[in-house]
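User: Predict the complex.
Assistant: Input components as received:
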Amino acid sequence: MKINIGIVGYGNLGKAVEKTVLANKDFNLVAIFSRRTVVSSFNTTVEPYENFKEYSSKIDVMMLCGGSKSDLEIQTPEVLEYFDCINTFDTHAKITSEYEKLGELAKNTNHRLIMSCGWDPGIFSIIRAMFKSIGGNEPITFWGKGVSMGHSDAIRRVKGVIDGVQFTVPNKEAIKLAKQGSLSQDIPLHFRECYVVSKKEDEKSVEEQIKKIPNYFKGQPTTVNFVSQTQLQKLKEKLYHKGEVIESFSNACGSKFQMSFAVSMDSNPEFTASIMSAYIYAICNLKENSMTGSFTNLDIPVSYLFKSSDKKSLLSLC
Amino acid sequence: MKINIGIVGYGNLGKAVEKTVLANKDFNLVAIFSRRTVVSSFNTTVEPYENFKEYSSKIDVMMLCGGSKSDLEIQTPEVLEYFDCINTFDTHAKITSEYEKLGELAKNTNHRLIMSCGWDPGIFSIIRAMFKSIGGNEPITFWGKGVSMGHSDAIRRVKGVIDGVQFTVPNKEAIKLAKQGSLSQDIPLHFRECYVVSKKEDEKSVEEQIKKIPNYFKGQPTTVNFVSQTQLQKLKEKLYHKGEVIESFSNACGSKFQMSFAVSMDSNPEFTASIMSAYIYAICNLKENSMTGSFTNLDIPVSYLFKSSDKKSLLSLC
């Protein structure tokens, strides 16, 4: 019997999830729900967002593909009341409060939510927890080269900026030092490459303002390049990304150890879609074991990423 | 309250676990059980193996540090009847049958066993399962440079061999191709470097015999070096090792993705000890949740590698 899937949101991520779900014979894609008037390139049924409740008997798992900022905080509780859900919520400061609040809602409505389920947060979270538990140190994460949505948003809020995008570029020297366990705090982990569309007369002020934004750019090696709207559009279409988590540690005997985990992808949303789709099986396993509530990737054993009928053959991966 | 730990077996692994457990304030090392007459360098109480039953009210978790072949198959069921246990059982062909047999015993005696809990099998198993669930392909594992116990044993069984050790060396070209997703079946993954002590007149026959051993050396690039007993002893003391798991995949859209996980260690037994020690917390979490039976690393969420009181702060790793 196939697992019936719904998708909420039809941006880059929603489209990637649609393609990934359609390519898997275990899944049956029932409908996409969107607040905008959209047409699926694969003839998937598209419904207005508010119609999702009518599907409560027809869909097993809802894939929430909106953005953390404007969509997920509102849509997750609305949809979770009726469905088991997976989202990619990545506003770090709010993960704990959302986890608790939504966990209560999920328990009360007999559902499960797997939240923050992408590559970071997501499988990188699993790796950071594994590394910390084994080595005891805080793991170091490097991102890029690839677009950072948060930093791009920060640029676009600057007065005089018409449009902009930011590429995060990891400092190769810092990666090398992190692997050796000799990274010091004064070495920048990342370079910030900004591409901005502005009026000629605003350029000087825009560059100054960007470099002063606390948490995002201040104190970090930042370059600001002014480009045309056409050039910027091309840069915004770059979906490739990379990332690496590193832990070095020494034990009581003075022996040294190093662990690292790296991913590289042509398309950030398509990689995220592959991970979300793997966790559809986790929803099924949680349900079979009568477990309800909110879960992050940290709470879910990897054996849950396979059909329960495959559990025995899974031991061959040991 | 501290977690009371016992160690069964006092070879390289038992000694490494002793040091790792002593270095952690959450643990209280109660006793080492050995079939041989041994003395702990840290004044830990040493008891004859058969006395372990007398400690059933004094020890929470038993760390089984014997070898898979001669010790674990016998000792695991004997000790598991009285204690929660962790072992590093790595005879792949028997993992499924041991998992089932010991799972039944653990359930009947109200205990938990975490088996095959090292780096491979162990955390590499988690990574292989994660990679397969996301990418769909069989992940490729590279080991070395480091000593392979299995291959060293195979050498020592050859007629005319007085002593021997085998270093597994990964083929760098194969690693590169695996990352690109273009590895073909005719490329060897590993080179086999053998160091052997033999009588001069046996050398030719020994080299021929080694290179013919099926599964271990036949069809694989193998070099046999004849050395003195003193030289061999030094080589056998090399405890460093490395390993890497790689998965490349393409999705339905033709986009390419790559995931890799690498470890490097000064001491193989000490790294294994760090991993086993992290899973002591998993035993506690399983117990708090009234879960009994046999478990591999695949069955255990990484959140279980932390004290249950730390669960909330763990979300900061997401």
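Chain A has a mean pLDDT of 96.
Let me know if you want any component modeled separately.
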